[in-house]
Specification:
The protein is of the alpha+beta class. The chain is built from ten helices and four strands, in the order E-H-H-E-H-H-H-E-H-H-H-E-H-H. Helix content is 49%, strand content 17%.
Length: 169
């Protein structure tokens, strides 16, 4: 099943200069970038993303929500829409668990981050975990519509699609 998913490379990924490496991992896995833009959204945009769609306050509380929004506003983010075979689950597997300390080696968070929830809570900071990835198909659809207009999403063939989807060149 061909899916689209939202991926946000967060301010910590951009400021560390590792976004090229992260994008390369997605492309090498056969995912196609169908939309991408560098943006610095305001509080309201993030509020709709994390609470309006993600229901973060009800899941993790107001304090955690505010720490995440503070972290996200520390600089621009690279928002991308990736497309591919079972893209949502593939990206989630590649990214690793939300807490970098628990993320397996070989995942993006496991290889490039190490902070724990306990440390972040003790320092009253958001968890620098580099990347956001849609959790499921419903979230992906809502998140993509929140971050991108239809005109910002593109269709084009890739060589990878020839081998995985039987598409002709």
């Amino acid at each position: 099943m061909i899916e689209r998913t939202l991926v946000i490379l967060k301010p910590d990924a951009i400021q560390r200069g590792i976004i090229g490496e992260v994008i390369t991992r997605f492309e090498r896995a056969g995912l196609k970038i169908v939309g991408a833009k560098l943006v610095q959204p305001d509080y309201e945009h993030y509020h709709k993303h994390y609470e309006g769609i993600g229901q973060m306050i009800s899941r993790r509380g107001q304090k955690a929500f505010e720490m995440v929004l503070d972290l996200m506003q520390k600089g621009p983010v690279l928002a991308m829409v990736l497309e591919g075979v079972e893209a949502i689950a593939l990206v989630r597997k590649m990214v690793g668990t939300t807490e970098p300390k628990a993320a397996a080696p070989g995942t993006i968070r496991g290889d490039y981050a190490h902070i724990s929830f306990a440390h972040a809570d003790e320092k009253t900071v958001g968890v620098g975990n580099l990347v956001h990835a849609s959790g499921d198909a419903q979230d992906a659809e809502k998140e993509i519509a929140h971050w991108f207009s239809e005109q910002e999403l593109h269709e084009y063939p890739t060589v990878h699609e020839y081998f995985t989807q039987g598409k002709s060149k």
